[in-house]
Amino acid sequence: MSRIDAPLLDNMNITFFNQLLFDTPQLRHFISRMRIFRAPDCARIFFDDGHVTVKPFGTLSLCILCKPSDWQLSSLSQLYNSALSPLALEHLEIHNSRNYWEDDTENVQWLEFLRLFPSLKDLVLSVKSFRLVAPALDELDGEIVTEVLPALQNIVLQGHRPSEADNKAIGKFIAARQHLGSPVTVRDRKT
Fold first, then answer.
1. Can you tell me the distance from the alpha carbon of 144 to that of 6, in angstroms, rounded to the nearest whole number?
2. 12, 89, 97, 154 — which has fewest CB within 10 A?
3. Shortest CA distance to 52 belongs to which of 10, 87, 94, 20?
């Protein structure tokens, strides 16, 4: 892949099979050379029962086939580090259509994943995704609260308005960011 140029390529779907380590530096170089894949500022992630898919461009799709939720999150972090890490995303959507999310996925895994996006301004979460991410963010204390997603300005809930329970679930995080001068607003997609 390090020597392949495909100037007419306008769509690419790559599927990775369940594996422990993702080491794809040549893929990163290939993607960075493609004119249509340059400098995206947004991406979408879709968790499903048998796979997780990341779409950092409208024309690129990376899918990892695996079932356990903790493996999906870990594999996604590895793939991002290996193939997509030069991307400076400002907008990230996380959708979760899994029927069941195993409890063995710890908040620390979500925090490690979210640390990969220091330039992220907008985090869009489906209802199911919010219920997974909010407790992880709310665990952060003190100055470390700005180490995860330091540029974050908005958490956007897709599919429903923030309820009192939603605001309470992430209240400590929001208050700490406000106190440190890096406020984050929680709102629904329509506002």
1. 43
2. 97
3. 94
pTM over 0.90, yes/no = no
Output phi, psi for 121, to 5 deg. Answer: -105, -35
pLDDT of residue 86: 62
Starting at the edge strand found earlier in the chain, the sheet holding 60-65 runs 12-17, 60-65, 51-57, 42-47, 91-96, 122-126, 154-158, 185-188
- The residue with tokens 């409208």 is 58
What pLDDT was estimated at residue 3? 65
